[in-house]
Amino acid sequence: MTSSTDRAAYAFACLRCGHGWEQTYAVRHATDPHGRPFLVYYRDGHPVPSPLTNPTCPLCGAHRVRVLPPGKVTATTAARRYPLP
């Protein structure tokens, strides 16, 4: 079995309550004994389910969550804070 570790960041937006957040994960790329690749995601040193499958809003618990590229939630929050005239 071989492995390497990278970092991945995602932004999330809840379609139910409007909460937005960003999270960074350590991602271990590995292959099983048969040579098939798989990923293991870690948050705070603990393995967690993939953030790309069935994410949950930490505020309201809904699973209606959109996954976005990193920085999108921060950019949207700043735009709301400083609207155009």
Output the keywords:
mainly beta, 1 helix, 85 residues, 5 strands, elongated, single chain, 5-stranded antiparallel beta sheet
What's the Cα radius of gyration?
Answer: 16 Å
| H/E element sequence | EEEEEH
Classify the beta-strand content into a percent band: 35-45%
Structural class: mainly beta
Which word captures the global form? elongated
How many individual helices?
A: 1
Largest sheet features: 5 strands, antiparallel
Count the strands? 5
Q: Distance between termini?
A: 58 Å
Can you tell me the number of structural domains? Answer: 1
- Point out poorly predicted stretches: none
The side-by-side strand order for the widest beta sheet comes to 4-3-2-1-5
Compute the average pLDDT. Answer: 85
Q: What share of the residues lie within helices?
A: 10-25%
